Amino acid sequence: MPLLSIKDLAKTYPLPGGGAHRVVEVVEFSLEAAEQLALRGESGSGKTTFLHLIAGILAPDSGRIALAGRDVAALGEAARDRLRAETIGYIFQTFNLLQGHTVLENVEFGMAFGRGVDRAYAESLLRRVGLSDKLGHFPRQLSTGQQQRVAVARALANHPKLVLADEPTGNLDRRHAREALALIREVCRECGAALLLVSHDEQVLAGFGDVRDFAALNRALTAEAAP
Hints:
By secondary structure, the protein is α/β, with parallel strands linked by helices. The protein has a single domain (33-59, 77-213), classed as Rossmann fold, CATH 3.40.50.300. The protein has helices at 47-55, 77-87, 103-112, 119-128, 144-155, 174-191, 202-205, 214-217, 219-225, and strands spanning 4-14, 20-31, 36-40, 62-67, 70-71, 88-91, 162-166, 194-199, 211-213. The strands form two sheets. Strands 6-7-8-3-9 form a five-stranded parallel sheet, sandwiched between helices. A four-stranded antiparallel sheet has the order 2-1-4-5. Helix 6 links the parallel strand 7 and strand 8 (194-199). Helix 3 (103-112) packs across helix 4 (119-128) and helix 3 runs parallel beside helix 5 (144-155). The longest helix has 18 residues, at 174-191.
């Protein structure tokens, strides 16, 4: 059984003047345990919505999302939050770090919603991403690339089975983007986590092994382009 299995997933948003806009319509998608896959798609193509649906941040209009044997879409809000905290790590483009908390506290805060705070493991993750000398620093004291490394460590803090990465190199220059992508992939492999990354950056995607077009997966885009 795949780690992630999706069937007939749909999400529609209402339009201000009436009517509705179908953002996501994915008939079938799956991801195996420890698999690493990148989805290529332009900005506004529904990639972030797709990840939010998988993570349970958004509820679909219809369809089934099976993650680690559980139907995410069928769970109540509290159960979805618990499953997300225990099973999914999320790397955001804007990092979403807590500016009033230290690097170590940011990683520990992510643990608080899952299996509980493990300071020794948080410190080991930060050592792994090259930040052992920054544990007491605040995000504003770090470079953009270092903040991204904190976000990677936080995403892996609860031993997730799946890491979702939404344009994780979008705020980095070319060199740091390549380094960050290599780090994300390497740390996911070390931790045994599957990785689903979405990006529009062809230079970043060029260094990724398995890349698929989100447009081919999302029927909502096909329908939008039809005359």
